[in-house]
Design a protein that fits this description.
This protein has about 240 residues and is of the alpha/beta class. It is built from seven helices and seven strands; from the N terminus they run βαβαβαβαβααβαβ. It has a seven-stranded parallel beta sheet, with helices on both faces. It holds the Pfam family adh_short.
Amino acid sequence: MKTVLITGANKSIGFETARQLLAQGYYVYLGSRDIEKGEQAVSQLRAEGLSQVEAIEIDVNQITSIQAAREALGQKIKVLDVLVNNAGIGGAMPQTPLETDITVFREVFETNFFGVIEVTQAFIDLLKESEEPRIVNVTSGLGSMALHNDPEWKYYSVKPASYVASKAALNAYTIVLAYDQRFTSFKINAVDPGYTATDFNHHSGPGTVEDAAARVVKAATIGADGPTGQFFSDDNAPETGVSPW
């Protein structure tokens, strides 16, 4: 049975990703900053008959929490097949490039960028034990620098400074990480789940968590002949599914 760790999985897209991967036969370690909320999410999934799931306490903003989660998971398994770096924040709004306090930039980057790096580095040894390791970095269509320079893009005027910069940085990390592992069996990709109705955006998005999670799951379960180092976005590129960086 393949194993997966999903950060920020006690609600919204992360939770639905856990549900869909459970339905495909994966054993899910449901990462949650608040272990009580994580356990509540696990109880809900088990009530649906999805039993191969456990909650793991992990705060991606705290290296000690990440290290504790790695130690805890290492006592349970020797192989991790999939890591989904899903945890993310938007930060206080509005975010203009000159007026947004630097603390907002640091808070957003701590979760959306540095947290991903620290989690990936902490669990890479378990991932390397997998025959077909997968890393999915949940990004945003707003992380595309190419499209932010296209006045015809539908989101051209949507530019929350710290969030956009953090996701662009995450995309760049995905590229260099995939390149670093290009001669291995790793598949490492960034996935834009789309503008989805969640607590993250006060349920303003038109998309569903089911569709958003399906995009993440598709990358998490990609085959040996699938691409690596790609930016998947049905929203930015409905015809090809691959967004410009």
